[in-house]
Amino acid sequence: MKSRTKDIPGWGMDADPENDPTYPMKHWNGADHERLNYEKAPQQPVDIEVLHSVERPGVTRVFGTSSPPLGLSGALRRYAYQYSEATATHWMTLILADRINAIEGKLTDLAHGILPNPWIERGWRAEWKHNRPAFIRKTATTALLITAGFMLLKRKNKRK
After folding, report:
1. Is 22 buried (19+), middle (13-18) or exposed (0-12) by CB count in 10 A?
2. What is the pLDDT of residues 121-154, one digit of tens each?
3. Contact 11, 5 (CB under 8 A)
4. Which region ranges are annotated with the description Disordered (predicted)?
5. Regions of the chain where pLDDT drops below 70
6. How far lies 99's CA from each of 72, 96, 103, in Å?
7. Mean pLDDT score of the chain
8. Where are the domains of the chain?
9. Residue 135: helix, strand or coil by DSSP?
10. Are 17 and 23 a contacting pair, CB within 8 Å?
11. What is the model's pTM?
12. Neighbours of 19 (CB within 10 A)
């Protein structure tokens, strides 16, 4: 593990007290580097697939297990984690995977006989209860935009 981290530029740069990047600005108290000698937490057992950055040599000590990568969104996440976190490919692919995961969740709900309830899921009930004027304004604006869109489409169809 130590040999792998030596290949990563800047890895552990603050571990050496003589090479502290905060030196001129920091007020030393004499015990600044004692924090390096703590007992690390035990590694959480890896019993599911855990995606981690290519910049890290391994998984973090503790990680979430509630939603492992599954389906098309999981395949996109695996693809994204092949790239550095410094690339747009990594982040844009993860955003796309999130959108696809939302659709997969709706399809899974429908497959289990659960119908979507946008009134509750999108927070409209709370909006109606606690911020009614804004809710009415948003609803009226949305209805106006949809009506205008239909009218424009209908007008274009009449011209043809």
Report:
1. exposed
2. 889 999 999 999 999 999 999 999 999 999 999 9
3. yes
4. 1-20
5. 1-5, 10, 12-38, 160
6. 11, 5, 7
7. 85
8. 118-159
9. helix
10. no
11. 0.60
12. 10
